[in-house]
Amino acid sequence: MLKAHGRDYRYREYTQEPLSADELTRVVALLGVPPRALLRKRDAAYKSLGLTGDEPDAELIGHMAAHPTLLQRPIGVHGDQAVIGRPVENLLTLG
Questions:
Q1: SS3 for the chain, per residue?
Q2: Residue (of 79, 60, 78, 80) closest to 70 by Cα position
């Protein structure tokens, strides 16, 4: 969709090149939401880790860095802007 709208982008395969805790902290700040808002509660790691979503922010970010499938996606980042790509059209608001 981005290519069809003439937007340049770099796709990052989150399972092959997961975001670090520092990167996640920055993305969360750019999104302006708490880390729990980015949790995929139906993910197997959510259940196996016994998460409730009430854990401290730093703990949730650590879990998302270690288990990238916990993170809602796609997330688009451009400079000092970030959006959750659900719906995917949100990505067009960047830049």
A1: CCHHHCCCCCCCCCCCCCCCHHHHHHHHHHHCCCHHHHECCCCHHHHHCCCCCCCCHHHHHHHHHHCHHHECCCEEEECCEEEECCCHHHHHHCC
A2: 60
Give me the residue label for tokens 């796609």. Answer: 74
Looking at domain 17-93, its CATH architecture is 3-Layer(aba) Sandwich (3.40)
Q: Summarize pLDDT for 25-43 with one digit per residue, the tens.
A: 999 999 999 999 999 999 9
- Tell me what pLDDT residue 93 has: 92
Q: 82 pLDDT band (50/70/90 cuts)? A: very high
Burial class (CB in 10 A: 0-12, 13-18, 19+), 89: exposed
Beta pairing partners, 78: 81
